[in-house]
Amino acid sequence: MAYPDVYDVTYSYTGFQQAQGDNSFPGTQIDADLAGLSDSVSSLALFITGALRADGRLANGSVTYESLSVDLQTAGLAPATAWVTVHGYLVGNSVVINSNLYRALLDHTSGVFATDLAAGKWVLVGALVAGPQGLPGVDGTNGTNGTNGTNGTNGTNGAGYGGTSATSLAIGTGSKVFTTQAGLAYQVGNYVRASSAASGANFMEGLVTAYSGTSLTINVTITGGSGTLADWRFAVSGVPSGVTSFNGQGGAIKIFYPPQVRLTLASGVKYMGTSQAGATSIIATPCGGNLLPLWNGTDWVPTPFTEFSQATTDTTKAPAAMGPEECWDHYAWSDAGTTRLSRQRWSKTATITMTIASPCVVTWSGHALPEFSPVIFTNSGGALPTGVTAGTVYYVGLAPATNTFNIATSLANAIAGTYVNTSGSQSGTHTGENRTTSRGYTHTDVQGIPVNTSSITNGPAAQRGTWLGITRTNASSTVDFIYPTFGVAGAFNVWNAYNQKPVAGTVIDNGVSYTRSSATWRLARASAINMIQFVTGGDAPLIADYQNVIQLVAVSGAVARLGLGYDSTSVPSNNVPFSNNAATTIISGCPVPFKVSSPAPGAHFICGMENADGTNASTFNLGGTVSSAGVGYLMAM
Predict the structure, then answer these.
(1) Is omega for the bond preceding 359 within 30 degrees of 0, making it cis?
(2) What does DSSP assign to residue 382?
(3) Which of 16, 162, 446, 592 gets the highest tally of CB atoms within 10 A of its CB?
(4) Could you give phi then psi for residue 31, rounded to 5 degrees?
């Protein structure tokens, strides 16, 4: 439609009026001009209604592709075609795929659309919304039916899944080889379940790693049930979905939860709130769930479990029975599909020498053994001196030197300074062994969970035991977890690597008051009542204190001290002095706080300590049986 003419009024009515005076206006000329204006307005109105609708939008059909500029025609408004592969597209070409309109940004030959899109060759213009359905067109004339073609020959049936095996295998994780039928459809990478024909609850699942002839190999990662079976049937199974990110972590997240278990000495009791003395079984009980992660060499397998245990005397699933004064690491593992406990004993050994003397002096270079550490001696090629028996537990005496120490036959004798005397002769090579301060082997950390680095005799293979914690035996080869009370020393000898809980207590010296003047530091009252033993894995701080009531002698300048010892009764870790400045009696309560941020893994003790000024005999534990002295303890275990 052409633009409408605009009427131009050229006649001057003002000029006519000035020239004619009072004569009449030129009516004919006025009519002609008004008619021209009317035609111009009508044409303009008609033109506008051809381009605009009453709602102000452009009229349908008013804008065509040919009416657009070249820039617009190449900016995504060109006619779109269905996208096809292996086609040359130019910049500005438009395509439709998956009900979306895209415009080409680069000249290219199409490949995989998703790949081309990711490479920046296309830009999304918008989603195509279906318009209202148009009116049905006129039916066309039916064409003539063609002649039916000849039926083709049926193809050969392809290989199927399924299959069975009579191979005798124990349910468990790892690579399993089955003898089955040849010609099955399994391919490497298929996820397959092998289940018992007798009970589908007994099964193994994993990826096919090899299939050739009649041999089918599956890397089993998930199991159900237990036992050794020979009635297997196969089926393709869905691969369990994996987690590819967790809390912002990328990659394949294998595990993000710790073992839901605690070691305990009482069945069904995950947190021992009461003392357990002389326990003969180590128990693994669920805590916060019932899943144990067990490493199969490739993945952590979350294994449901119920409470299980191991006797301290067991030798079928451990290298040996638990002996006196020993530390042991405990592990959970899959024993042919059955979740069990196993253990590994600590050991620190060295070649040593002994003197024939009263008392005997043991030389062990750089031994680093605290007071009262248990030691065992053996001999090869000769004999130990008289007074020392091979395989018997002895205890390091007071204030051991860097390379030497005395030995006692019991903890009480070691505290009292009553040592072993030797006589006769000796020969051969002597070996000293301690089983509470050093493992003598290592753990391997797998994604945050320690496992046994080397295989354990009668137990898990290398890196197949999930470490759960540590215990220490007493002199009777049993395990104690004793809360200190009035006149009873503490012994916390079960330490958990997971689901720890603080334990605390105060041991009260229930003996009568006593006097002491010696300036030599010693264990309070020289009594094991004022000690607390514990074992630790090394990642939880120890907080302790000691309090006593002292009556200083009525002598000006008299001094008495209280201290708190850590693995020593000879050198206090912390102490506070009290003194008289006049010839009067002073009664003082003395708290002595102490903290170890990270105790070394192994067996330790804390104790109350005391000394005086070497001259004046002050009175300690003034309250006597009214409970005036106590060692307090707080630690996560």
Answers:
(1) yes
(2) E
(3) 592
(4) -60, -40
Closest CA to 611 of 586, 584, 579: 579
Please list, in sequence order, all residues whose beta carbon lies within 8 angstroms of the beta carbon of residue 569, skipping any fewer than 6 positions away.
371, 398, 415, 521, 522, 523, 607, 609
The amino acid at 93:
N
Alpha helix ranges (H) inside 151-308 = none
Say how far apart CA 12 and CA 73 lie, in whole Å: 50
Quote the CA–CA distance of 465 and 332 in Å, as a whole number: 5
Q: Residues 544, 570: contact at Cβ < 8 Å? A: no
Of 28, 3, 22, the residue nearest 11 (C-alpha)? 28
Nearest Cα residue to 303 out of 177, 193, 171, 209? 171
And the tokens for 88?
């040359």
The pTM (predicted TM-score) of the whole model is 0.62
Alpha-carbon span 325 to 314, nearest angstrom = 17
Among 417, 334, 330, CA closest to 371: 417
Distances (CA, A) of 195 to 74, 187, 240, 247: 62, 19, 17, 36
Structure tokens at 395: 């205890």
Rounded to whole angstroms, how far apart are CA atoms 543 and 635?
7
What percent of the residues of the chain are helix, what percent strand, and what percent coil, each to the nearest 5? 10, 40, 50
Residue 566 structure tokens = 């850590």
| Tokens 């007493």 belong to residue | 474
Task: Extract the tokens encoding 201.
Answer: 């609850």
Look-up: residue for tokens 């009290």? 578
Q: Give 40's Cβ-side CA count (13 Å radius).
A: 11
DSSP 561-627: EEEEEES-SSS-SEEEEEE-SSSS-EEEEEEEEEEESSPPSEEEEEEEEEEE-SSS-EEESTTGGGT
Token pair in block for residue 241: 């979905």
The conformation of residue 539, written as its DSSP 8-state character, comes to: -
CA-CA distance, 333 to 328, in Å (whole number)?
16
CB 314 within 8 A of CB 321: yes
Q: How confident is residue 423, by pLDDT bands cut at 50, 70 and 90?
A: very high
Contact 113, 89 (CB under 8 A): no
Sheet of 215-224: strand order equals 164-165, 232-236, 191-196, 203-212, 215-224, 174-179
pLDDT digits (tens, 9 = 90+) for 197-247: 999 889 999 999 999 999 999 999 888 888 999 999 999 887 665 554 444
Give the start-end residues of each E strand in 305-373: 308-311, 327-335, 338-345, 348-354, 362-363
Say if CB 560 and CB 585 are below 8 A apart.
no
Place of tokens 């004798």: 413
Instruction: Give dist(CA 398, CA 404) in Å, integer.
Output: 11
The sign of the torsion formed by the CA atoms of 44, 46, 49, 54 equals positive
Contact call for residues 94 and 103 (beta carbons, < 8 A): yes
Amino acid at 264: T
Q: Which two tokens stand for residue 582?
A: 């006049």
Instruction: List the beta bridge partners of residue 482.
Output: 491
Could you read off the pLDDT of 607-622 as tens digits, one per residue?
888 888 899 888 888 7
What was the pLDDT predicted at 204?
93
- Give residues with Cβ within 8 angstroms of 453, minimum separation 6: 441, 442, 443, 444, 462, 463
